[in-house]
Structures
1.
Amino acid sequence: MSVPPRVLTVTPNPALDLTVQAGGWQRGEVNAAQAAQQDAGGKGVNVAALLADWGVSVAATGLLGRDNAAPFETLFREKGVIDEFVRVPGAARVGLKIVDRTRGDTTDLNLPGLTVSARALADLQATLRAPPPGVNVVALCGSLPPGVPTTFYAEEVARLRGQGRFVALDTSGQALHAALHAAVLPQLVKPNIHELEAALGRSLTTEAEVLAAARDLIRRGAELVTVSQGERGALLVTAHEALFARPPRVTVQSTVGAGDAMVAGLISAHLDGLGLQSAARRATAFSAGSITRLGAHLPPHAELDALAAQVQVESADALTH
């Protein structure tokens, strides 16, 4: 008998990620690629897969095109993720990831996704109104496809928090703007620095400005704001603490999903009742470990524990003086 899920991830706009290895590729030229692989993806799908790797019982929902659902169904079976996706006509979008190990970067080309009907959206909302028994954490993840209003996450946050659930949010653009300007904020918000700047409509050029912006969200009802800043690390802020976590150096296979791994790490830390410093170490280790793999996969526990021990954690207030 399967263990009831503790976490439900929500991915309204999943994608098949086509990752192409193309070292030294040049824009506007004919380029040779070294390898390619296709993975079922989308932010919430990745978060669910990574939590399952850690040993958390997790369910995943969202809107999934029937025409190419098979890779997602295979992933869920292999990881032991409970499939609660609403099937819709058509095919999930394809996201192209061009990985250049020569330069150490990844270029993303993301298509908009299926246009969602009112019926499909209502079916998803019905799933969220009656999640699987045992779920106490809901992670709202990724972009919204055409047909889903930009206020969708903001409205779901208020309703889910009203049910007493812990809500994590990782999105961008207008969806993040609406959620951060709503009356009720999620308990966990994890934008990257560029997403936060866009949502707030201003540049955050100093550590003090980033810290002040995070603390403003805490004052307005968030409980943990994590601002990821790529290889520099991440700022983690609660009502009582503010820390900056710097990751250890690792051999990068692909940076795709590093933010999703951080969300998974923060959720697992919440489930285990960890303090902020331990949560910062675990989330940073998840992120560092995930980029040593292609696709949404974590290294073994022992390797993650070793990475967590190498994370440098310091007071964020000390960095602003």
2.
Amino acid sequence: MKQLIETIVKPIVDFPDEVHVDVVENTSTITYQLSVNKADMGKVIGKQGRVAKAIRTVVYAAGSSQQKKIFLEIGE
């Protein structure tokens, strides 16, 4: 899943080397924390959050086979 998020985000941003995904796993949830360069935040979020929503939709669909709830947090 981490590789999927990086594959989606890296072509969008200006600084692909600064794209990092951290995984925090609990008993019932998996949280992926996406961090990008501050200048790229607008590109990842998109107008009215459309790009972020699309990324989350793909990630949630890919992770639907797992027994845990998946979350994607986007930050700097």
3.
Amino acid sequence: MNAQFKKGVLELIVLESVRKRDMYGYELVAEVSKVVDVNEGTIYPLLKRLTNEHYFETYLRESTEGPSRKYYHLTAAGILYRDALETEWDLFQQQVNRFLKEQRA
């Protein structure tokens, strides 16, 4: 997949993944990787930025498989931001698809 396409939609995919349920970082990398190929080095800086912008809250939860894990929870501001991104994405897709269809005619 084109790296610029991926970069443009990654925030929306991350926000939507956490909207469904709270997730910890590695779990989120695995979830996002089902849609676009990403690694931890891409996701963790994005999580940090979205947390700093108050779209996520974090908390620690004990793990039976090692140290406590940091979970990400979508805030009310995060939900609004996710919804706005989805609206923008839908409009963008429609405009690009309309353009491509017109060019083929």
4.
Amino acid sequence: MLEGAGAVFIAENGGGIGVRLKLNRSEVKRIGVLENEGGIVGTDAVP
């Protein structure tokens, strides 16, 4: 069920087990666009 949604389960391979989300090219491109929409990162002046 999760595999159908794009989850890829990684077996123990020396680096540990895990889960990765498999994305297609258009999804990767869209994420790249969204990551750059925030503008320039500034510092917070929190007292």
